[in-house]
Design brief:
mainly alpha
């Protein structure tokens, strides 16, 4: 059950960042967009690769492929509004993150799996929050106020992350 909740949580964070990128794509430079796609693909790939490895124990190939596909897909979705270079950057980073997450959990002792999953939740959600703050800093305050919505407030994402960490 926790794996499903964590997967939904990572899906929500991915949607949140990707939607922000789509709405404010004209305000974001190519470098910021590439960094966001790379960081989001790598982070979600790492987190989902870890979760899939726990969900499918002893199926290393399937865990690796699913983690790579999820990470690559998230990286591509974050990079599409920016440029082809951001798409490639997000894809490659997501693939690498998916592999690394699965390898981490395969090499982990069974005693430390639950602790590692919780630690991955804190680290990955923290990185996604920092990416969101970076994206907010790249958009001019006037344009941000003009197209403001609930999901463009850092405090909203912060509370969602804290709530998820407490609940999960």
């Amino acid at each position: 059950m926790h794996i499903v909740l964590m997967s939904l949580f990572y899906g929500l964070l991915s949607f949140w960042i990707t939607r922000f990128i789509v709405i404010f794509r004209k305000q974001l430079t190519s470098m910021i967009g590439m960094m966001a796609a790379m960081a989001l693909g790598m982070t979600i790939g790492l987190a989902m690769g870890s979760l899939v490895a726990v969900w499918l124990p002893d199926q290393f190939f399937h865990s690796t492929m699913i983690g790579m596909l999820i990470g690559g897909a998230v990286g591509v979705m974050a990079g599409i509004p920016i440029s082809l270079m951001a798409v490639i950057d997000g894809l490659l980073s997501g693939i690498m993150g998916g592999m690394m997450g699965t390898m981490l959990m395969v090499m982990m002792s069974a005693d430390y799996v639950a602790i590692t999953i919780k630690l991955m939740l804190v680290i990955c959600s923290g990185i996604v929050f920092l990416v969101f703050v970076m994206l907010l800093g790249a958009v001019s305050p006037d344009y941000l106020k003009e197209k403001s919505f609930v999901m463009s407030k850092p405090i909203a994402m912060f509370f969602v992350i804290v709530f998820a960490i407490i609940i999960i």
